Amino acid sequence: MKIFITADIEGITGATKWEETDQTNQYFLELREQMTAEVKAACEGALNAGAKEIVVKDSHGWGCNLLHKKLPREVKLIRSWAAHPYSMMYGIDKTFDATLVIGYHSQAGTDGSPLAHTMTGNMMHVKINDLLSSEFVISAYTSGYEGVPVAFLAGDAALCRHAKSFLPGITTVAVKEAEGSATYNLHPDLAADMIREGVENALKGDLSKCRVAMPKTFHVEMGYKRHMDAHRCGFYPGAKQIGPNIVEFTSNDYFEVLRFFEFCIL
Ligand SMILES: [Zn+2]
User: 196 CA distance to ligand 1 centroid (A)?
Assistant: First the structure.
């Protein structure tokens, strides 16, 4: 069994302040350790379920957050960014048996986390076929595009509910709940234990229930915080500015949607 893991940091237990997610900040070090611990737990769960190969994409900020030496030897780690439209899913292909998503967070336009955003802090919202989409949804469709089931998600509770409604067969572990600027967090060791167990059970289960149904047509609506960003992205081939802050784009090919995101999520 070959497993792909994509990992972010804002949905790790404890993560609450932007400063903690910034690698130049002193508070980042502790969160980096816990991001590594949660990814390690996911890897251990996968190995317990029979995985032989694991590729991890470090998908937060500068992409160099995880401490490779603390992960199992089977892990090949992708650091930094390839400037490829697969973005947080870069490295996935049809040879993988399942995708695991760790440390993901609520999307822009929702109040599920004090760190809610979609890809960057500049988007008011990203909708795909009218669904207020998260990085989880964007990544899940990328996995679906490669025919790889999405078996597991760990992140904030609101994102877990959103993921369950998008893909009912997925196993989720909510490591925290939020209200306003506050977060209620699981103990770091308990979060890791729940992730290890959740991943193992998910991968021993029926992965066909975790296949992502790909729509025939993807209609994307982008809301920008800055009207000048909408103006600029309205010039992307095939895109159309339909309001001061809103741009839309439609394609039957999800890769074209990802290409659009690569250039127009600013
Ligand atoms: Zn992030």
Answer: 21
